Amino acid sequence: MSQIKIKCEKCDHEFVVDVEYEHVDSNSDRGMGDEKIYEAVVDVECPICGEHITGTIEYWEYPEGVVDHKSDDNLDGASVVEYGIECGLN
Ligand SMILES: [Zn+2]
Fold it and tell me: pTM surpassing 0.70?
């Protein structure tokens, strides 16, 4: 279980949500081992304004142990402030 911090697009409230990152895909055609893609589903309501925040967030790990890229393009209703509190994702 990871904790992320998101910011509601409607009222700008920032709050922490528990998510479960799952390893969803790998690219093995790179030189320093596999590039791994992790995804977490977000489905919460803003505790202040009730905005429904839903979608997925992703990060790419390459090489192993290094976060290469992060995305909240598929998350509706909020943006991600921190992708993983106290787990090296920021
Ligand atoms: Zn809100």
Answer: yes
d(CA 42, CA 57): 7
Quick: pLDDT tens for 49-69.
Answer: 999 999 999 999 998 888 889
CB within 5 A of ion ligand 1: which residues?
8, 10-11, 13, 46, 48-49, 51
Of the candidates 23, 61, 16, 17, the residue with the CA atom closest to the CA atom of residue 39: 23
Domain range enclosing 37: 2-87
* Domains: count for the chain: 1
Q: How far is the CA of 28 from the centre of ligand 1 (A)?
A: 40
29 CA distance to ligand 1 middle (Å): 42
